[in-house]
Design brief:
The complex is a heterodimer of chains A (about 350) and B (about 90). With about 350 residues, chain A is an all-beta fold. Chain A has 2 helices and 28 strands. In chain A, about 50% of the residues are buried. Chain B has a 5-stranded mixed sheet with strand order 2-1-5-3-4, with helices on one face. The chains are: A mainly beta (about 350), B alpha+beta (about 90).
Chain lengths: ~350, ~90
Amino acid sequence: MSVTALIGTIKGSWLLRADDARQVWRLEGPAFKGWKVTAATREEDGSYLLATASDVYGPALQRTRDFKEFEQLESSPAWPEESGRKLKQIWRLRAHGGSIFAGVDEAGLFRSADGGATWESICGLNEHETREAWQPGFGGLCLHEILVDPTNQDRMWIGISAVGVFRTDDGGVTWNSKNDGVPVILEDQDHQGIGYCVHGLVQDPDDPNKIYRQDHVGMFVTDDGGDSWVRQEDGLPSTFGFPIVMDPHTRHLFCLPLESDEFRIPVDGRFDIYRSTDAARTWAPSSTGLPRSDTYAGVLRQAMAVDGCNPCGIYVGTTAGTIYVSNDVGESWATIPCHLPRILCVEALMED
Amino acid sequence: MQIQLEFPAALATVLGMRGLLIDGGGTLRETFRRIADEYPKLGLHLFDESGGLREHVLCFWNGTNTRWLPSLDVAMTEGDELVIMQAASGG
């Protein structure tokens, strides 16, 4: 099995290919020159689905088996004209249980049961009773997280910036706000359960009820599927940040604290990836090989990824187009010699 | 009757070409609909949820910006040319 990291940027995508030891890296690209590449997932048949977008020409989905030939799908998630909404970007793709789920801006969840030929709006969420009060965050009104319960196909979680986390227990028919314990950032006069700003979610692969949450206002953990959240941020120099990822083998967690929601840059110019080895109870820098000073580029919510290898590889793409990789669960890091456009997403794709 | 449709380099990868000869019978409005129906991959990028041109997509019909036309219900004629451009302002 080999590792290829897809690097999606504001001006195209690149592939970062590793040798078996993940010590020698080769950058290939660009594909989709001039287009944003915003999300990717591996489908259950082994092909890959990528989301592209343009401020002028809108979003689209692209399928490939080898990253050499791409085929644009004829269909894409779309809002009905009468909704008055515009589909600006696909933020998250997830293949699960024979379906493909897409999280989009303007916020919504879509499902395709036929490989992307047709898309169904998940109305229980998209027309939720609180919908009229959903307000965009700094990055837009985007549904950017989709988690599924591997033990129960009817159970899912989604995250929407400046709105919050919702869970369904009945296959997407009804959705309930799951944000108790997290401070609200944008209170609404008429509706409860919204105005929470989730930035990133990651789920324990053995326990779907255990979810870690990098929120606008801190780092939180739930042990009960989101019914209640508690802060766990001991050791973090700042509680603000975007991505959070987990090594599926050791369960170590990784994040990048940023200085406040006003500034959104690494604290004191130190590009410190923080790691927790005890389920988020304590955090410490895990930064050997990363820049120690004068680094002020951040990492967007989808631009940190882990592979499935053991020991785990971690891939980080910055807003300055720099890529850092670790092949030893964050013990050490290397810088890939390149300067890409602003990196929007990183996906580690395992190839047989 | 056929008309020429040209589009910019950014869209060349969609169909693997920079231009098409399309059946141009009827009105400009009908031609837009025909493009969307017969070339859905291209239509996805030219037209939004309303069925109209995306906000930053321009279409010139024989050199005239179609947004300046009082209506899209104008008759197409043999040899007409539609050129798609990206609305760009400033740098």
